[in-house]
Amino acid sequence: MIACASCGRLNDTARKFCGGCGGALSADPDRIPDVREGAPMSVQIAAAAVAGRRGVASSVKLGLLIVALSVGLVLLGSLFGPGGAAVFLGIAVLMNLGAWWFSDRLVIASTGAKEVSREKAPQLHDVVEALAARAGVPKPRIYLMDAEAPNAFATGRTPDRAAVAVTRGLLRVVDRHELEGVLAHELGHVLNRDILISSVVACLCGAIMFLATAARWGALMAADDDRVDGLLWLALVILAPIGAMFVQLGVARSREYRADETGARLSGKPLALASALLRIESAARGARPLSVAPEAAHLFLIPPFQKGWLAALFNTHPPTESRVKRLRAMAAPEKSRLPA
What we know:
By secondary structure, the chain is mainly alpha-helical. The chain has 10 helices and 6 strands.
């Protein structure tokens, strides 16, 4: 008898698929089961290679944003005296360099994901390899998170250093078309250099929020000192973290929309990604939330934490309904133009 890795049901050794959940069976207990094939799904838009380079305007905007956040960090540091600006200028430079060089390693380490070989996950490797070849980039390293909550993320500052990770829960709820849509979305982040952008922005915004908290306590302790403009201090330390938070949210949400579009064009199946988003969000409600650092939440396909009405206002992801609506709109005008 062979036990199904997904539901635990015992099946006859002659069976290829579980009689309970329909999942693929494997005699190798360490092999990751294939996802089900799912209903046939035609291509909705012409699948094509997607350029992974940002335009000049996008690069200029990114540079200005990083400079603005770095200046904000330095200005907050100046509240601590002439030496504070110099100290926090150095901190801003080091944090930008750190986010550039080490963001991929830090994310992998913080999530506990483990790299999986082709022998252990042949279907996963096949799907990623096909998408990477279509995009014209090296195949990313593939990782697995041993978690029941369905989700996925990508990391790596360039396509040459990219990695994609999925949870066991994701492989249990999606079919092959939906898996392709999810992985195409994650490759979209890699092609658009979103991981680097998000890591630098999150790093700088986190530093601004931390420094603002320290400055707020400093302002309260120096309230009786006539040499300190307490109102100015309080205004800066209250407005700075709020501004940094909204900058981070705006960047993260816009990048999710763009990765959805890039992934849909890469796979040619925007409806597959739309279906996956709805299925994953529904399944995630009944699963235990992922144990990840809040700083890494923006990297995931959907928010890894439980959401309430207040948390949704400060979410790094746009509403799933809005993402699905955009994906369906991509498919609608193109279907009639596809060759029969």
